[in-house]
Amino acid sequence: MATFRLDKDGLWIKGIGQLIFAFAGIESAIVSLIKEASRSKIHDTAAHLSLHHKIDLLLEILDSETGDHTQVKSALKQASALAAIRNLVAHNRLAVGISVTPDMELQFREFIPSRRNNNKEVTLEQLLEAARQAEEIERTLWSNVRNPTKVT
After folding, report:
1. In a domain, 3, yes or no
2. How far apart are the C-alpha atoms of 136 and 122, rounded to whole Å?
3. Any bridge partners for residue 98, and if so which?
4. Which of 53, 61, 35 is nearest to 145 (CA)?
5. C-alpha dihedral (150, 146, 42, 72), degrees to nearest 10
């Protein structure tokens, strides 16, 4: 009889942790960038906004400023696109699909299915790639914060 242990190598836990922590850093860097770019205390309010609204606010602020903000704007757009995977991972469970091969062998497949859309899921490979991209976005954003020691 075939036996199966979910996430036996711990790669799902590692990938989920990396993705969630990277997004925490992304959100913190965005609030710091809003604080630096704004001449008001809007960053206090921005800290309570959703990630999507923080990104929109910072993009709007950067559009009104002079200077080259191409790198930050690109990272923000990437974070916005990647947030869909982060949300799917954060709000759904790890599942296992079981199938039988023509020679009657059991096959197991781990994935995170969306409760809202049966056509959406995240595989381990997609999760690990999303975590890698999120960490890269986080580094890019923090490299543009002028005073990272004053992070709130």
Report:
1. no
2. 20
3. 108
4. 35
5. -130
| pLDDT value at 92 more than 90 | yes
Question: Is residue 27 one of the residues assigned to a domain?
Answer: yes
Sheet containing 121-122: give its strands across.
95-100, 106-113, 121-122
pLDDT band at 46 (very low <50, low <70, confident <90, very high): confident
Integer Cα distance of 141 and 145 in angstroms: 7
pTM: 0.86
Q: Is 151 part of any domain? A: no
The answer to the question of residue 152 being in a domain is no
Task: Give the pair of three-digit tokens for residue 126.
Answer: 């997609």
In angstroms, the Cα distances linking 72 to 20, 34, 58, 79, 81 are: 20, 12, 10, 10, 14
- Rounded to whole angstroms, the Cα distance separating 137 from 5 reads 33
